[in-house]
Amino acid sequence: MKAASREALATSQTTLDSVLYGGDAVADFARTGLDLFEVVEVLDGDRELRGALKDPAASADARKALVNTLFGSKVSDRALRVLEDVVTHQWSSARDLVNGLVNLGRRALLRGAEAQGQLGQVEDELFRLSRILDREGELTQLLTDRTAESARKRGLLANVLYGKVTMFTEALALQTIARPEHNPIDDIAGLASQAAELQGRSIAYVTSAGALNDNQQQALADKLGKIYGRAMSIHSEVDESILGGMIIRVGDEVIDGSTAGKIARMRTAMSK
């Protein structure tokens, strides 16, 4: 997003939080997020409408009136208030406006998980799902099939998730599959990162030769937090091929303390 869109999104995020926490029912958080996704689906299929809602030649009041006419009777009051706020801002492009609504829909669901005391759990479930998709190539291929209808792909993933994750994780994952940005693995991992950010954390991706217990993960999070100067979430997976130790990735930085990595470096040094 360009600067104007980033500013518009930041302002709308503040509005969304205010609207959500002005109520007292967690169900309202979920309803707001799902309603925003419904609006996104409409806008995805109507280029002219996308342009009208972003049109700088129209007054903010005119754009708000258009939102009320089209969606006033179809979405919740909270979702409508967010939509009204979104269209009053200047976005760099109509596509940025739609992507902003996607961000806000996801944020509403994550805020709902937070209000329910499940945000950390949702973060972990999303990460685990991204790892499952990474391992299950056939499932991921089905979810990325361009010839398959979105409803069919959502149904397939819903069957996989049913009864195994929170309602927030399921809703977020299904929305992401229906409207892919990159690929299912990266898109869902990105949601986990967004959940971590709402908790004021960055993510450290850890690959170890054996499973880390809770105490080991907490100790590692504390150590990395001191190194990077911010709270950390540990997303760990097991890969026996590294033989021992661990590989840690934070952003673009990789710390390879694995036995396999050490052996490879020794071989390189000896060959010189």
Automatic annotation (TrEMBL):
One GO CC annotation: proton-transporting ATP synthase complex
InterPro entries in the record: ATPase_OSCP/d_CS (IPR020781), ATPase_OSCP/dsu (IPR000711)
Membrane disposition: Peripheral membrane protein
Subcellular location: Cell membrane; Membrane
Pfam family for this entry, one: OSCP
Keywords on record: ATP synthesis, Cell membrane, CF(1), Hydrogen ion transport, Ion transport, Membrane, Transport
Endpoints of the signal sequence: none
PROSITE patterns listed in its UniProt record: ATPASE_DELTA
Residue runs in coiled coils: none
Gene Ontology MF terms: proton-transporting ATP synthase activity, rotational mechanism
Role: F(1)F(0) ATP synthase produces ATP from ADP in the presence of a proton or sodium gradient. F-type ATPases consist of two structural domains, F(1) containing the extramembraneous catalytic core and F(0) containing the membrane proton channel, linked together by a central stalk and a peripheral stalk. During catalysis, ATP synthesis in the catalytic domain of F(1) is coupled via a rotary mechanism of the central stalk subunits to proton translocation.
NCBIfam families, per database record: ATP_synt_delta (TIGR01145), PRK13430.1 (NF009967)
Family to which this protein belongs: Belongs to the ATPase delta chain family.
PANTHER family xrefs: ATP SYNTHASE DELTA CHAIN
Name the record gives this protein: ATP synthase subunit delta
Species annotation: Corynebacterium phoceense
Lineage, top ranks: Bacteria, Bacillati, Actinomycetota, Actinomycetes, Mycobacteriales
